[in-house]
Every structure is written in structure tokens, then in C-alpha cells.
Amino acid sequence: MLDIRGISKRFGTRTVLSDVSFTVRPGEVFGFVGSNGAGKTTTMRIVLGVLAADSGEVRWKDAPIDADVRRRIGYMPEERGLYPKMKVEDHLQYLARLHGLGPGEARSSTRHWTERLGIASRLGDEVQKLSLGNQQRVQLAAALVHDPEVLVLDEPFSGLDPTAVEVMSKVLRDKADGGIPTVFSSHQLDLVERLCDRIGIIADGRMVAVGTVEELRDRDHGVVLVVEGPPAGWADALPGVQVVAAAGTRTTVRLLGADDQQVLAAALAAGPVHEFRRHRPPLTEVYRDVVSAAAPERAR
């Protein structure tokens, strides 16, 4: 298990991470989401040892991470981290050798991952001559070529076409199914929702929510009602209810202590009820609400 325990980091007077904690379990894909500047990349760099935390620690298999463990991590940076004039095959074999693979192992692993990621035909090309999407595939191959024990990927799906997204998604899911803990950051919340076992949301350097997609979607219980001909604002004064949206006959409310059967009774009093169901928001809506709710706390 990859265990991030209470890490904090300041640059001068600016606090970029404050007591950030989460775990990535064996065989789990963990989505790390937040706006630009929220602290995702800084956290990943601390895991890799590129930066040192001011406090807290990172542990792997219940022991502090050291240089030997970090050599067994597959890391993919958000920025292009490739030598532009090296040929793809030479580049990947070089990186594999740096991680301790022998010449034959490096050649075999390079062939395997370039075939798996659909870039085997580009082995003889210089990196700089590849499209941005294919460079991204090479970067993922570089993170995988040494058969890592844990994956840390910063925006791995950036710039990819839908076909490449599916290929990468399958690779990450297969690695997780093989027991590899995987953490990746992304702004593509629909992809995070579909691919991840658990998700952590970070805002202004603080973890503001961690859980499965289902747990996060169930944080604020809500219901959707369709009521025929209700009086305007019929739900506004209901105790323990917040109206999220109201358009025509459709009203969506968040239950802040109210019982859903009481809300149904009020709806029936307002008019015939044609629909009454639980509201399960998409991750994009959950993310917006969680970050917005955290803003007043950060301001205090």
C-alpha cells in the first residue's frame, strides 16, 4: 500500500500542501483531482523524492520510501520528460537499463510495451518527430518498461484521442488487476469516474474529500420530483431542504435533515407527482459542490 501521511509543503510564505493524507491500496486505481495549482503535482513529486516535504511522510509496504523503492516506481510527469532527438527504441531501452534491467530484458520489455500501446511501428523514429499523442504513449511506456511495483501518473491522458484513451485505460486497469497500486491525476472527470476505484479531491493544498465514486455521489442525499402544476416555489420553505434546481414541473432538492417521505408528502400536496427518484449527481457536479463547500472553510 502506498501511504501518504500528513504531508505539508511551503514555498516561501505560500502553503501549497497542508496535512495531505490518503492511501492507494494494492490493485487500486486512485484518481487525484483538483484545479490547476491545487497541489497534485507537488504531492506526486514528494512521493518520488523530487521534492522534500516540510512535514509528514510517504510510506510503501508500511516502511518509509527510500531511493531503492523509488527505482521501483513507474512515474509519468505532466511535462514532456523525453529526450527529443533519441529514437523511441533507444530511449526506452536506456530508461529500462537505468532501472536495472539487463540488455535482453530491456529489449524485450520495450517491444512488449510499444506493441501494447500501439507505437511499435515508431521504434526507429526520433521522439521529436512523433505527434503529441504518440509522445504521450512513449511516456507511459517509459513508466512501465521496468515492470514497476507502483504507478504514479500526472495527467497521463492529456492530449490523447479517444482510441488512445481506451488503450491506456485498459493498460492501467490490467496493471491494477495484477495488484499494482496506481494513482493518477486528471482534469477529465468523466474518465476518472469511469476508471477509478477511489477518488481524492484536493483544493488549495488540502484534501477535501476521499472515497469511492458511489460514496462521493451519496455525500448529499437528494431527490428529483416531477409535480404537475405546482405553485411557484412550493419547495422553497420546506424545512431541511435545499432547492438545487427548479425548471417547469421538475424540481431537484438536497435533503439537509428532511425525510424524503415528508418531501414526497409536500409534493403530493402541491400537485400530482409523476416522478420521485433519488438524485445521484455526476462526478463533475460532486467536484464542484465539494470544492465550493471547502472555500468558506479555507477563508475562515
Question: What keyword list fits this structure?
Answer:
alpha/beta; 2 domains; 300 residues; 14 strands; transport; six-stranded mixed β-sheet; Alpha-Beta Plaits; Rossmann fold; elongated
Outline of the structure:
This protein is of the alpha/beta class and 300 residues long. It has ten helices and 14 strands. The chain has two domains: 2-214, Rossmann fold (3-Layer(aba) Sandwich), CATH 3.40.50; 219-279, 2-Layer Sandwich (Alpha-Beta Plaits), CATH 3.30.70.
Overview of the molecule:
- This protein is of the alpha/beta class and 300 residues long.
- It folds into 2 domains: 2-214, Rossmann fold (3-Layer(aba) Sandwich); 219-279, 2-Layer Sandwich (Alpha-Beta Plaits).
- Helix content is 36%, strand content 28%.
- The chain is built from 10 helices and 14 strands.
- It has a 6-stranded mixed β-sheet, with helices on both faces. A 4-stranded antiparallel β-sheet has the order 2-1-4-5, with helices on one face.
- A hairpin with a 2-residue loop joins strand 12 and strand 13 (250-255).
- The longest helix has 17 residues, at 283-299.
- The radius of gyration is 23 Å and the shape is elongated.
- The chain starts with a strand and ends with a helix.
- 36% of the residues are buried.
- The mean pLDDT is 91.
- Pfam families: ABC_tran (PF00005), DrrA1-3_C (PF13732).
- It comes from Pseudonocardia thermophila.
- This is ABC-2 type transport system ATP-binding protein.
- Belongs to the ABC transporter superfamily.
- Residues 2-229 form the ABC transporter domain.
